Amino acid sequence: MDSLNSRKKLKLGIANRGVVHHDTEPHVSLEKWFKTVSETNTFDYVDKTPSENEIDLYLKYSDKYELPILCGGWFYTIGNDENLLFKHLENARLLGSQCHNVQIKSKHAEGYDVTNDQIIEIYMKASEYGDRVGCKPCFELHINMWSEDFLRIFDVAEEIERKGVSFRMTLDHSHIIFKIDNDFEMDKFNLSERLKQKKLILDPYKKGHVAEKLINKNYVNLLHARSVIPNNPKNITATHPDGSVGRGVQYPFIKPLKDQFHSPWDEEKLEPWKEIVRQVLDYHYRNKISPLELISTEFIPAIDYGAGNTYSLLDSSVACAHWIREEIALREKKFI
Fold this sequence. Notes:
alpha/beta; TIM Barrel; 10 strands
């Protein structure tokens, strides 16, 4: 029983993106951030890849406030950032991190679309190096990255596993759910046609939906928890350098106060996003081979997410983590 409990025990963390509540608040020190998170009595760890000159400072406050840095992540351009990826994995050993979330940009440094073979090559190298230093690289499903073309993930993963190597991924299903019934997103990667032809299913209540397939393949080692709703409203409070508004891949987990969020808020609309969390947890507790260890809440102030809004990212993270713990408790009672 102890062995099963140890294997199934999940830890919940919070991403550090330099703010406590929103991106227009006064700057807080790193120690203040750690102290504030610690005082919530909610999280088991921090999710962060600090710059090399900040490692000692992060470790200092990690130790002081008993919040280990079990996970981090970064985005990489093939043809330019391979050494940076290996350096981050090496630094992860110093930080005590178990996982490193890897976002691979869709464009090569030379400007063309990265190929599956290039993704496979960097995955194999990163996986081998990560195993050596004790930190698992997990390739993320994410907008603006190669993996936004969801079907490519299966092609890449299957080829990697044919080579005898486990494919480890980060599932951030907010990048799936926000596309449901979203006309703007339908033109990307021929999504509308793929849905019509049933080559791809986004709806989490339909058998064979894309997240379910990824979960059942035993790929999910890390879960990012950031709530969205189908046809999530664009983030009209922030714009990219080209003038386009944020794509809208974040929705407050709890009701914002008046004028804190740019759109009406409806808790019921969160259910499709919650459903995939439930399915991830069901798989984990029903399958001894589940590799899932960490769940990082990731409410962030970036343009495509929460920039320009004033609802509390911390409060959403805390509420989301409490809800996930309730779902975990139900399954621990049933399956362990």
